[in-house]
Design brief:
This protein is mainly α. It has four helices and no strands.
Length: about 120
């Protein structure tokens, strides 16, 4: 009889996948900062780069989570994307002491993070 992993194991897997996503985010943001410094990018290109970084990071995290869990991969990828966004929002509020963008941008970022994670989970 095959034993299913418990909640503690899935929580550890979720933390590992989130950590991987944030490491990818940090690395890609460093590359974007270097490109901004060297190429003098305008605001629109930097904003597009940040969006791509969010989606790519949650995709990779969702992919890893889907590989680890093996069942209901899209759900676990979606969960990872939502938690990724929630932590991102909490850090932003802690640093800025308020929300710097309007509700539309916040919802759009939530949808991009959740969609990236879900897509990563489905592809895994």
């Amino acid at each position: 009889m095959e034993r299913k992993p418990g909640r503690n194991i899935k929580a550890v897997w979720l933390l590992k996948a989130l950590l991987t996503g944030y490491i990818v985010t940090g690395f890609l943001l460093l590359i974007l900062a270097l490109l901004l410094y060297k190429l003098d990018l305008d605001e629109q290109k930097v904003t597009m780069g940040i969006i791509v970084i969010y989606v790519l990071s949650t995709f990779i995290g969702g992919f890893i989570m889907g590989r680890l869990v093996g069942v209901r991969k899209f759900f676990w990828g979606l969960t990872l994307g939502v938690i990724y966004f929630a932590l991102l929002l909490l850090v932003s509020i802690a640093v800025n002491h308020s929300l710097q963008s309007n509700g539309t941008n916040i919802v759009t970022t939530l949808l991009l993070c959740a969609g990236g994670g879900m897509l990563g989970g489905m592809v895994s």
